[in-house]
Amino acid sequence: MNSQGIVYDLSFEHQTPGDCLGIGYAAPRLSWKIRSSSPFRQTAYQVEVSFDGGDRRTLTVEGDRQVLVPWPVEPLRSRQRAVVRVRVAGEIDGWGPWSSPAAVEAGLLHERDWTARFITPEGIADLDQPAPELFHTFHVKDRVMSARLYITAHGVFRATINGRVVTDSVLDPGWTSYPHRLRYRTLDVTDLIRSGENTISSLVGDGWYRGYLKWESRRAHYGSRLALCAQLEITTESGKRITVGTDEEWRARSSAVVSADLYNGTIIDYRVDLDDSPIMPVRVVESGTERLVAPDGPSILPVGTMRAQRIWKSPSGKTLVDFGQNAVGWVRLHVRGLAPDGIVTVRHAEVLEHDELGVRPLRAAKATDTYILDGPDPRTLEPVFTLHGFRYAEVTGIDDLMIDDVEFVVVGTALSRIGWFVCSNDLLNRLHDNVVWSTRSNFIDIPTDCPQRDERLGWTGDIQVFSPTALELFDVSGLLVGWLKDLAAEQYPDGGVPHVIPNPTFLEHDPAACAWGDAAVVVPWNIYLSTGDDGILKRQLPSMTAWVDRVNELAGDNHLWQGGFQFGDWLDPTAPPDEPGKAKADPDVVATGCFARCAQIVADAAEAIGEKAISVRYGMLAALIRDAFVEAYVDDDGRIASDAQTVYALSLQWGLLADDRQRDGAGRRLAALVREGGFHIGTGFVGTPLLCDALTEAGYPDLAWRLLNQTECPSWLYPVTMGATTIWERWDSMLPDGTINPGEMTSFNHYSLGAVVDWMNRCIAGLAPEAPGYRRIRVAPHCFEGLDYVSAHHDCPYGRIAVDWRRTGDGIELRVNVPVGVTAQVRLPGSDETEEPIIVGNGEWVWHTRSGRVIVSRPCS
């Protein structure tokens, strides 16, 4: 039997497998997956690196490492391109074949690589003026062999060369901590350059840089002038490099984009004749290139379209469109003639209220696109430099709108889907789909809270609780790596963490808040657990320790974090609509519990990267906090102050209790609270991700199952029964009578409360990581009554893991697929927890069990 390993999906850092253009690392780490038709264990690997000019290096390394392997040769220089192949050897058949080649090309790694300068238009492009177009004409005499465009903006850009848009991505360069880090894009534009005269141009919009941000109706947080920095480098057949960079020779003019704002939408006036627009000079803005960085994650792209499901007239006579799914993007209209008054308007909302567009949750965001037409010719209308979160649209100015005239352009960061779950329960399937859609909608370059109202910010608390689920569903690692760099850059000198990252009000100082500031510690730890990347711990450890030190200072000698501002168990269902922080769980109990958890994570992270002294220091601190927690808040029988579901869940899950008596008592009390509550949720942002796990590990998995299946409010399935297609911010964002919750914070697309999907995958399907990067997994499904089958798949760094179980006539069939490099510990349904697990390596395995007894066990070919 051939046991050679076939290498595939060669990738660099946290980028998508395949060619990688413009990477910001001189020594990018390599990862690969291995396919084998029989049991295989890598014992060595070879990396072949070929540079332009014919220089080729091959390195052989003993060992089984295949994820984030160190770059094997000298670091790349700026612009340098290398082609990499990998092959691996096993214990039996020796070297397998070489992988398909993957190219990696460095971006501009140093400030000195930039000769272009930021330029801004003179006399135009002020606030409330049309978006400017900056342009330049240049000549190329020889045949073009390659061309790279390195480009960024103070604002967002849409660049063209010779009238052709240079990239499908939108809202480039995205949103970073502009005072510290400004991202640039590297684009291959070889096919767009021609011999002779060429024109490069770029439209520049407000974006996050100058647009409205947060809820105070303020804009221009980072600056009042838009600017562009573009460096086009062309290599000709003769070997000559031509550089065309933004400088004083460029020119500018106003465009037909009257306004474009992320919250308010776009106004485009097609009557504007660009040929009549005055040509204006530009001036150099002497700042910016020292902060330029390459992207760590993918760009924002149109990722698909959705057809309209229904068009009808509302009671007030408005034309409404239902796309059937709440998502993010914009409406594309195909107009067949001139509107009655020449104006077409599209308004957006997530829900209907009283059969009209439900715009109240948008708060100050207008979410409206307006087009002023210039004549009767057919035209396709769509906005620029904006995004909307919506399911429904109201269209005015077109009397005979047809289904084929309108479509939803779905937009999001181009994340790879890596996690799937499906079962025999349709409500749970819809719940899982809702979480997937909310994840797509709220990873728009950064992890946001919501995509529709006047907010859309990188709230630290939201991603702190949701990061395990996000990392399970999508490859968000690169995006989060970049976001954590911003967090570290914006962390206050005292170690405190802003409530949102990037922080547009960076001159203010947010008070330290548990669960929110904890993102500095928890998110890098979760990336490490999901991907095995210890580099993220090395880079973020100073930020992690700074946060814990800040909390330690606030807690003082008694190690209890008490008083001061806290969000607490945000949006606990008992909290009044306008006081979402007034939860049943005592905020001091929650804060001290978070403090202990973060100290322990820092100790574990330091241990993982060999920082022994730091590990010992924070391990001792964590022990002191746990002792103080028990002394202050827990009685001998495990009863905890404030007697709320959340305080028991966090105490059990974070190991805060002193002994088995307290743990057993806390578990019993949590189970009793769930029963007394009629199996309704009693937790907010902090407790919700922990609740089902706490019940399961305390010995009450059936209660967790009943809690999950509750359909009355508050519950996970109540929104599903109300027609939700995404996760709501509140358990009751829509009231049973179809009216919108009167609370100020009412979004219908928030991922936080969907963190239960992590438990569904690990406990119902039984697919759980046991070591960082899924190097070891635990397969132990709970085959709950009422379920006939469950199937879960996860594309871990080593390949696809699949766990499928289904009921048969006389028992349960369990199938497990394990990729090369992963070891699975399998506990069969119904087996005794005291029994040793079954250990298997790569391959597909199947077991038939009856009452926990194995009837058939075999590997599948």
Can you give a write-up of this model?
The protein is an alpha+beta fold and 861 residues long. Among the domains are: 101 residues, Immunoglobulins (Immunoglobulin-like), CATH 2.60.40; 183 residues, Galactose-binding domain-like (Jelly Rolls), CATH 2.60.120; 108 residues, Sandwich (Jelly Rolls), CATH 2.60.120; 94 residues, Maltose phosphorylase, domain 3, CATH 2.60.420.10. The strands form eleven sheets. Strands 21, 22, 25, 26, 27, 28, 31, 32, 33 and 34 form a ten-stranded mixed sheet that branches. Helix 7 runs antiparallel to helix 8 and helix 9 runs antiparallel to helix 10. Its EC number is 3.2.1.40. It catalyses: Hydrolysis of terminal non-reducing alpha-L-rhamnose residues in alpha-L-rhamnosides. This is alpha-L-rhamnosidase.
